């Protein structure tokens, strides 16, 4: 591979909406002045990948699309102007690979909320500065500007670190923003890819953690991961017993919920934060909000500085994702298992098998 030419990488892509993923060749751009060429070692499977390839968010999209925004790998080569990384460094790429760099949010390290002309440029299913579709991490390698690359600490194994680039920061960001910590009661709705990370991180921050899950099937796991309490939301008594209990609730599921019931679990001035993205709009009644000065909020991944902060926090506290490592040709089966909640708790593709 040379810095002067484009490179070809094999990847797994959806050739059309709702089509099974298949192995194809994609072109990666030539290495620019500030670009980093990354040999991808592992790529996590996020529910957003499934939503995108199955056109479940109503987006037309450009196909074929290579999903994957939980990328862990090793720097293979750098452009002549790169100062942050060198060949051999352990690095990651998350949910975006560029932004306008000029708006107030970008200058403040909140690139995920870019309001500039380009907006946040997603790692896949977006349009890069070169006018070409971005293609993600189910691939052998990727080229990314150094300013959008993260350093993965040596204390984190690369395979279990990959999901931190989305699931980790998606839960870390609201926990940090709403100040989860000692003396704070945090509830996590759902114990899946996002939820299991939320439990680990909130526990490490010192909060009292409760899992709210449809059943008690994963209770032992929840307690092992750091939850102090575990309740089944299928039991109406749960909502009576826990009314007014929590400072912060993270909703990690993408299903339709009775949000009024969950808002009723908050203390005065408590906040319910939406992380999962259901297919249909959610209804929020006024009374559950105004009766306790409660807030219903949203949170989207994290900016580059906060994502690095999250990686360093996880390394310091021995936190990584619970994963099931798969071969690339198992990706379609893995998608079905994600939809059936048959994974504990994140599938990760071994890129050596692509």
From TrEMBL:
InterPro entries: ADH-like_C, ADH-like_N, ADH_Zn_CS, CAD-like, ER, GroES-like_sf, NAD(P)-bd_dom_sf. Gene3D superfamilies: Medium-chain alcohol dehydrogenases, catalytic domain, NAD(P)-binding Rossmann-like Domain. The keyword Oxidoreductase applies. Its EC number is 1.1.1.2. One of its GO terms (molecular function) is oxidoreductase activity. It is an enzyme of class 1 (oxidoreductase). Its cofactor is Zn(2+). SUPFAM superfamilies: GroES-like (SSF50129), NAD(P)-binding Rossmann-fold domains (SSF51735). The keyword Zinc applies. Keywords: Metal-binding, Oxidoreductase, Zinc. It catalyses: a primary alcohol + NADP(+) = an aldehyde + NADPH + H(+). Belongs to the zinc-containing alcohol dehydrogenase family. This is alcohol dehydrogenase (NADP(+)).
């Amino acid at each position: 591979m040379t810095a002067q030419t484009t490179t070809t990488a094999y990847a797994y892509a959806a050739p059309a909406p709702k089509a099974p993923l298949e192995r194809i060749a994609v072109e990666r751009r030539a290495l620019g002045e500030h670009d980093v060429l990354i040999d991808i070692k592992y790529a996590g499977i996020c529910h957003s990948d499934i939503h995108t390839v199955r056109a479940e968010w109503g987006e037309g999209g450009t196909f074929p699309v290579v999903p994957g925004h939980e990328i862990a790998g090793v720097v293979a080569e750098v452009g002549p102007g790169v100062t942050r990384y060198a060949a051999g460094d352990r690095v990651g790429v998350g949910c975006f690979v560029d932004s306008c760099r000029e708006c107030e949010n970008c200058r403040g390290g909140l690139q995920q909320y870019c309001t500039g002309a380009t907006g946040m440029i997603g790692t896949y299913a977006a349009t890069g500065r070169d006018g070409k579709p971005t293609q993600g991490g189910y691939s052998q390698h990727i080229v990314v500007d150094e300013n959008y690359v993260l350093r993965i600490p040596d204390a984190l194994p690369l395979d279990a670190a990959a999901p931190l680039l989305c699931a980790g920061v998606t839960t870390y960001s609201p926990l940090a923003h709403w100040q989860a910590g000692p003396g704070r009661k945090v509830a996590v709705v759902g114990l899946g890819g996002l939820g299991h990370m939320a439990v680990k991180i909130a526990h490490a921050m010192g909060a009292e953690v409760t899992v709210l899950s449809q059943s008690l099937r994963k209770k032992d796991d929840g307690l092992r991961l750091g939850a102090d309490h575990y309740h089944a939301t299928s039991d109406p008594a749960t909502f009576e017993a826990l009314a007014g209990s929590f400072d912060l609730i993270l909703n990690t599921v993408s299903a339709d919920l009775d949000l009024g019931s969950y808002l009723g679990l908050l203390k005065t001035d408590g906040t319910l934060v939406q992380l999962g993205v259901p297919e249909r709009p959610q209804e929020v009644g006024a009374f559950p909000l105004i009766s306790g000065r409660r807030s219903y909020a949203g949170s989207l991944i994290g900016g580059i500085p906060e994502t690095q902060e999250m990686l360093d926090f996880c390394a310091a506290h021995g936190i990584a994702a619970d994963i099931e490592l798969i071969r690339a040709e198992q990706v379609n089966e893995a998608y079905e298992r994600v939809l059936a909640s048959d994974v504990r708790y994140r599938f990760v593709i071994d890129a050596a098998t692509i």
